[in-house]
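Ticket opened by: R.M.
Priority: normal
Category: complex prediction / small molecule

The reporter submitted a protein together with magnesium ion and asked that the result be attached to this ticket for the collaborator who will pick it up next week. Submitted input follows.
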Amino acid sequence: MKGYIFDLDGTVYLDDEPIDGAAKTINELKAQGHKVVFLTNKSIARRSDYVEKLNKMGIECTIEDVINSNFITAKFLQGKPGKALVIGEKPLFEELTEEGIQITNNPREAYYVVIGWDHEFNYEKLSQAYEAYQNGAKIIATNPDRTCPTKEGEIPDCEAMIGAIEGATGKTIDYIAGKPSRLMMQYVTEEVLKLPPNQCYMIGDRLETDILMGNENGVNSVLVLTGITKRADVAQSEIKPTYILNSIADLKSSD
Ligand SMILES: [Mg+2]
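Result attached by the on-call engineer:
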């Protein structure tokens, strides 16, 4: 039995369009007795939204099979004292609250600032984050993606908001919870898949998140070329995947 960890955007689908062969490949792996989990850095949808989306594409899964960066951010904060000031969209607020994280909109009582992708990010939110920082709050982000791939091209993601905060503070933020964090990979292999890392495969389209996270944690990494990264980019990068496939459709069980 192996564990297959799939990135979503650019790997399983692009926007609402499944990548050709995605459902067939994933359902076959499950039928062969392998474990499958889905991992996304995108903070603007709930885990349940992804379950619904995947099910509609003919990919069977439940909420336990989908881990997003909001959930890992909550895992990071659980057990730590103090409230969090949150900049992000409704799903981030909801999923943090559901995991017991206390949220405040008062920068002076925040122990943490949590930053996620926010289509309504503005100067006022930036100022609040900065005020919390000045009061000693630690700044953490859901994910370090600069952009998100869509059918129309790439659009700015969470790193753009991180850049704004770092521009104000002059310092690198304290922690990023989503891919490529060790916390996220360990949670998936130990708590979800319950398999040794070397029996797992991380399949994704982005070198600096999906592939790096696999490589740094002893998980086999598989780059697919249906998203952000082109074959020529691999030659330019220090981050080398264990395997390169044109598409998820080319993935076959190694057993
Ligand atoms: Mg991706």
